[in-house]
Specification:
Elements lengths: L8 E7 L2 H17 L3 E7 L1 H6 L2 E5 L15 H18 L3 E5 L2 H13 L4 E4 L11 H8 L2 E4 L4 H6 L5 E3 L27 E5 L4 H21 L4 E6 L5 H8 L7 E5 L11 E5 L2 H9 L3 E5 L3 H10 L7 H6 L5 E4 L5 H13 L1 H16 L6 H14 L2
Parallel strand pairs: 1-2, 1-4, 2-3, 4-5, 5-6, 6-7, 8-9, 8-11, 9-10, 11-12, 12-13
Helix pairs in contact: 1-14, 3-4, 7-12, 9-13
Length: 384
């Protein structure tokens, strides 16, 4: 790593959801490793609270997605924005770093612009997928954007944005894919490992948890030794999920709180909520089907503004329907079970999908993304 001349600085960093909190905390640790004089004030989640010097608020636990749900959070957002404004005016941070979460963070960027505070976007929102006019706004509000897909710098360049691709930050903490052999002797009676990722936001969890559980029960009729694993966030309350399932779970059903992806990496097939989890699965080389079930007014709006042909990041990166996407009413137990059983009945399909997913991993760079971004930010600030 290049040498950084130590400089005393106070940096404000803002993340608004669980995945952003993880990326932001990794960047904070890299900044502090590169320059011990860095002092970080943060709004985010539990990871940022542990990594930063001063923590203002756990915004990640309040996460809202889509178009309608965030409106309910407006009173909280206004209160937080006032706190951030006071912080900027009294503490005069040398830089602002925001992570994803456009709805809130573009307002924070506007306040920084007004006060001539250099601003960086780490994990830029996917404006190439919908509402592309936001790319021009981002160009005017940021000094630099650290994007996470190799095609994004060229996209942002069209709108005057300074975007750089240093690799996808998921590579910094996802393990290498495990060796897999799907060619089992008796696929009908094999103990297939079926993973379930119902999401991190409560709306997603409520909509998908019962559907995923019923999918598992249908799969059991044809593959009776299937073991199901529902992956929960570390601080999740299992009772919430049990209530959503609505019955005492089958003996082959298990809850997992897996901080380091070790158990997920063992899965043969996954039922995944659309989002970051699908890319994590691809990097682990785990075949999947993607379910997308939104609050219906949000979905109706989304249909009109999304400009890309696929929902999942995996298919967008592959530029083809590499994994099956089941959307809204199609994201039901019957359809999900049919897709799962088709895979278990033909293990060659699992092998082919895994190989395609691992090709995507190779296109997303190398580990050390947060470290490289930290060096760029600190070098920029030396010349401010």
């Amino acid at each position: 790593m290049s040498t950084i001349t130590p400089i005393s600085k106070n940096i404000l960093i803002v993340a608004g959801d669980v995945s952003g909190d993880i990326h932001a905390a990794s960047l904070v640790r890299a900044l502090k490793a590169a320059d011990p004089d860095v002092r970080v004030t943060a709004i985010g989640g539990k990871q940022l609270a542990a990594a930063s010097d001063t923590f203002m608020y756990d915004l990640a636990s309040q996460g809202a997605s889509g178009f309608i749900e965030p409106l309910k959070k407006m009173p909280l957002w206004i209160k937080l924005l006032n706190q951030i404004r006071d912080y900027m005016e009294t503490q005069n941070p040398v830089a602002l770093i925001v992570v994803d979460f456009y709805g809130f963070n573009h307002q924070v960027l506007g306040m920084a612009k007004h006060r001539n505070i250099p601003a960086y976007y780490y994990v830029t929102p996917q404006v190439w997928a919908s509402r592309q006019y936001r790319a021009k706004q981002l160009a005017g509000l940021t000094k630099k954007m650290f994007v996470i897909y190799p095609f994004e710098p060229e996209f942002h360049k069209q709108f005057g944005g300074n975007a750089v691709f240093l690799g996808n930050p998921l590579l910094d903490y996802l393990p290498a894919p495990q060796d897999k052999n799907f060619n089992v002797a008796d696929h009908k009676n094999h103990a297939w490992k079926l993973g379930m990722l119902p999401g991190s936001r409560m709306g997603e969890i409520k909509r998908l948890t019962p559907v995923f559980y019923q999918t598992f029960k249908q799969v059991l009729k044809e593959f009776p030794n299937t073991q199901a694993y529902m992956f929960l966030l570390p601080d999740a309350d299992e009772k919430v999920f049990l209530d959503l399932i609505g019955e005492k779970p089958h003996e082959n059903f298990h809850f997992v709180k897996d901080n380091h992806y070790a158990k997920r990496a063992e899965m043969d097939f996954l039922l995944a909520c659309s989002g970051t989890a699908t890319l994590e699965n691809a990097l682990l080389g785990i075949p999947m089907v993607v379910a997308y079930k939104l609050f219906w007014p949000t979905y109706e709006i989304a249909k009109r503004v999304i400009k890309v042909p696929y929902i999942s990041l995996v298919n967008l990166l592959a530029r083809r329907a590499l994994v099956k996407e089941l959307i809204q009413q199609d994201a039901n137990a019957k359809s999900l079970a049919a897709e799962t059983m088709a895979m278990f009945q033909n293990p060659a399909k699992l092998t082919a999908m895994r190989e395609d997913l691992l090709k995507l991993r190779a296109s997303l760079g190398e580990p050390g993304v947060a470290k490289r971004a930290a060096v760029e930010i600190l070098n920029d600030l030396k010349h401010e």
